Amino acid sequence: HAKSLGRSSYSYYTQELDNAIRYQLKMKADLAYAIKHRQLSLAFQPIVSLAENKVTKFEALVRWQHGEQWISPAEFIPLAEQFSLIKPLGEFVLSEACRQLKKLKAKGYQDIVFNVNRSVNEIPLSANENDEWLLMIDMYGLSPADICFELTESALAPDKRNSEVLFNNLRAAGATIALDDFGTGYSSLAYIRRIPLDYIKIDRSFITDMSENPDDKILVSTIIAMTKSLGKKVVAEGVETIEQVEQLQQLGCDYIQGFYYSKPIAASDIPAFIDNFSMLNVPCVSAE
Ligand code: C2E
Ligand code: MG
Ligand code: MG
Ligand code: MG
């Protein structure tokens, strides 16, 4: 009895494993194909300046339509990392962001800055490759100041590639750096001292519970105060309600990003968004 049970569960598990491997291989091949043929796309989420009451910054967020389905970057970025596809994916994202930005500037939208996300695994291993991102920006006739690179706390950890040299290099050229999802990683305040940063983005999880949870409000307030005393700008992520906007404004937050103002939109919708925002100054929510 035990023997037959053992055998059937063995074949059951090999079948499962087989399916899982098959699925992974298919996803790998499909993702590689999609990157190579520029079948991924970008959506852009406005980042609103509270002080100036205007929008010039947009975060580029990668999108993948796989067959009938839209797959979330939260799912396929880790796949790209696992399958060594993160470098070509990152190249696609930066080049596509530059291409779209160039078009918008030609239409007269000169002040736009695009925020581009970078995974820690995209940070070059050797200093020889440090100029690759800048070369790409230059290739599109843009200036480094037109791009802000968003990195998470793991990219700042010591001994992680040559991040310190890279960030100094990018900033010396005029690009800006944002620390993404602040508060969720293994942050050490020492990194913030060591790495030159322009923006700190407070993670959505703190903002979501701010209204109900007094501790989260204290944390948000403290992060804002700390960031500002360090001479950096602070962005609140995942802002969905007017109450959150008002609280953040009171706390002196510089920038707001979230569904309250807009979901990520197509590049072609950016001009209308900017025009309507400055004209009406009321929240405008577009479909993702
Ligand atoms: P992230 O950089 O923190 O981007 C913000 C995410 O929060 C986006 O999800 C955005 O759609 C979502 N979001 C913005 N406002 C709100 C809100 O008010 N409420 C809620 N519930 N969500 C909001 P998305 O586009 O699914 O991206 C998820 C993550 O995938 C990003 O987090 C980023 O870490 C990564 N990612 C996206 N694009 C790229 C890319 O081009 N390269 C790399 N390396 N990572 C990327
Ligand atoms: Mg980001
Ligand atoms: Mg973020
Ligand atoms: Mg996030």
From TrEMBL:
Residues 24-278 form the EAL domain. This is EAL domain-containing protein.
